[in-house]
Fold this sequence. Notes:
Blueprint (H helix, E strand, L loop, with lengths): L1 E4 L5 H9 L3 E4 L5 H7 L5 E4 L7 H6 L5 E4 L9 H6 L3 E3 L6 H16 L2 H9 L17 E5 L3 H10 L5 E5 L12 E2 L2 H7 L2 E4 L13 H5 L5 E5 L8 H10 L2 E6 L16 H5 L4 E3 L8 H20 L1
Parallel strand pairs: 1-2, 1-3, 3-4, 4-5, 6-7, 6-9, 7-8, 9-10, 10-11, 11-12
Amino acid sequence: MNILIVDDIHEILLQKLDKAGISYSYQPDFTREQAEEQIPNFDGLIIRSKFQVDKEFIDINPNLKMIGRAGAGMDNIDEAYAASKGIFLIPANEGNRDAVGEHMIGMLLSLMNNLNRGNREIREGQWNREENRGYELKGRTVALIGYGHNGQAMAKKLSGFDVNVIAYDKYKTGFSDQYATEVSMEEVVRRADVLSFHIPLTRETKGMVDDEYLFHFRKPIFFLMGARGGIVNVPAVIKKLDEGKIIAAAFDVLPVEKFPALGEQSWYQNLIERDNVLLSPHVAGWTFESYFKLSDVLADKIIAFLNQ
């Protein structure tokens, strides 16, 4: 196999491909147009998030056999169409699951203890001790939506906090383990104190978290979105913040990312003015360690695929 690599990846992937005798062309600065020109000369493609690998791109090379993504999820690839063409898809979900879990727990603890607001106020000369009294995580019920690699890593990391971890996964059954208990969605909406998402962006999940979805939760919740921004309707979350049904919300991902497009959204200003909202720039899964692990995992999977 001859593989075209069009995105920045850790050198460990190149080293492992070299050792396995797999031919590749590393072109991290390629534009989509350049990739379209070159892809007919290759059997495989490796990408992170540079562009959409859609039907039009896939059709350029009818002999494409493999697409690997040095990241979690395959939402920038038309999975169904690729599969219909017999293309083997290889994600590297295991590579950043620890990073995502740690980041989202960090955001949760910051929200529960008003760390972001307290830090800002002290820098502004305010010492508001009572106003920044926090909540303890111990004894609360954390509900995970999705129990794949990221959900499982989150559950494991929560195990030291003396919380009750429950999980709902529409596509899995019988997955209860020492870290989480499988429950129905009805139990999630009844029991959750914290709601955290660990599902991919698909046609089914796009816009899933809307006003109707959030309406059913019985208790005020802390809301964590570290999956994909397209899953959530931000105005619906803002509405529930206003109603007190969401105590605080953390977003590592948003439906629209990067400026100037983000700043042009009708909900953007409302969101950033809130002390009980914490934002980060889609960086939860992008640590120095995960940069290595994503490429390391992907290389092993590609080699295993070619050796089968």
